[in-house]
Every structure is written in structure tokens, then in C-alpha cells.
Specification:
Organism: Caenorhabditis brenneri (Nematode worm)
Shape: globular
Largest sheet: 3 strands, mixed
CATH superfamily: Potassium Channel Kv1.1, Chain A
Structural class: alpha+beta
Strand content: 15-25%
InterPro entries: BTB/POZ_dom (IPR000210), SKP1/BTB/POZ_sf (IPR011333)
Domain BTB: 14-78
CATH topology: Potassium Channel Kv1.1, Chain A
Protein name: BTB domain-containing protein
Length: 116
């Protein structure tokens, strides 16, 4: 099992699955919704759906991007392209919140990440 898959294993804290490149990322809807308006909109629109397919993004890049809100984030060199598409994630512990913004977020939701 890769570090990407291990970081998103099913647990008692996860309540949704994001399917990327045929692989499952078990996530917590409230956590992602808190840190991203994209996921807040997605999960509010798809309340009864437990699995959501995410298209046109590399699994490792996307898992690393989502890991930014976890205790031990995965930081690859290709994070900028995914951040551009999905915007920024606010991260931090307790009162030491910081905004993680990599690359430009203008028009991020309409951009496609090309595999390569």
C-alpha cells in the first residue's frame, strides 16, 4: 500500500469516498467542507452519495493536495497544478491557522489537470 493510500484508509472518522483513477480516498466530509468551498458545495449537493468520482486529476497529486489538512501532509513537487484546480486549503492547528495557497486560484474550478 502506498503512502497516499495509507493516508486515506477507511476509519471511524471517514464518511465519504472520493474515487480518483479507480482508487479510493476515504475522507471526512466536514473536514474537507470546512477547508474548501469546492468540497462544501460538492458534499452539500450530494448529501446521500457516499462515493464521488473525481475526474481528470492524478491520484497521487490529489491525495497529496488533500493531505494538506492532515497532521502529516504529503508534499510532492506537482502540488501546484492540483491546487490551481481545487483552490486553496486553510490548514493549521488550533489557533495557529494559516492559509495554504499554491499557484493561482483564479478560475481554478474550470481548469483541467493533465496526466503526465
Amino acid at each position: 500500500m502506498s503512502i497516499y493510500e495509507k493516508a486515506f484508509e477507511k476509519s471511524d472518522k471517514t464518511d465519504a469516498v472520493l474515487l480518483v483513477d479507480g482508487k479510493k480516498l476515504h475522507v471526512n466530509k466536514a473536514l474537507l467542507s470546512y477547508h474548501s468551498t469546492h468540497f462544501k458545495t460538492l458534499f452539500n449537493a450530494e448529501k446521500s452519495v457516499k462515493e464521488v468520482k473525481i475526474k481528470d486529476v492524478n491520484f497521487k497529486d490529489f491525495a497529496a493536495f488533500l493531505s494538506l489538512v492532515q497532521d502529516q501532509p504529503i508534499i510532492p513537487t506537482t502540488l501546484g497544478a492540483v491546487s490551481h484546480r481545487f483552490g486553496s486549503l486553510a490548514t493549521g492547528e488550533n489557533s495557529n491557522r494559516r492559509q495554504v495557497r499554491i499557484g493561482s486560484s483564479g478560475g481554478a474550478w474550470n481548469q483541467c489537470v493533465r496526466k503526465g
